[in-house]
Write a structure and sequence with these properties.
Elements: E1 13-18, H1 30-35, E2 40-44, E3 48-51, E4 63-67, E5 74-77, H2 92-108
Antiparallel strand pairs: 1-2, 3-4, 4-5
Length: 109
């Protein structure tokens, strides 16, 4: 059996994306696109969440979305291209709850 010299965890980086405010019809509303800052971001799996709208385009599982840490605008990515299934992600509500808890913990320190 080979000896492990240095163990590395698999990367959770999904890819590099631009903050565009684009995606499903609710996100693509003109006001959201105008607010997008255009930052290029390295997005990790834990920064993705599932969103839905009232359109049926997303199917039962929804869209794969990230929130820009610079401007707060949400942008969808193509789940199939990046091997991320919306059904396997936490909901937007759960993601926002976790962000708030992390912020609160940081403020207490």
């Amino acid at each position: 059996m080979p000896k492990v010299i240095e163990r590395c965890e698999p990367s959770s980086v999904v890819g590099t994306f631009k903050c565009t405010g684009g995606g499903h019809p609710v996100l693509s509303h003109q006001s959201n696109v105008v607010k997008a800052c255009g930052s290029t971001l390295e997005i990790s799996l834990h920064q993705l969440f599932r969103t839905k709208d009232y359109d049926t385009c997303a199917g039962p599982n929804g869209y794969v979305t990230f929130m820009c840490p610079v401007c707060g605008v949400e942008t969808d990515i193509s789940g199939g291209q990046y091997q991320v299934e919306a059904a396997n992600l936490r909901s937007k509500e759960e993601y926002v709850r976790i962000l708030q808890a992390e912020k609160d913990m940081h403020l207490r320190q």
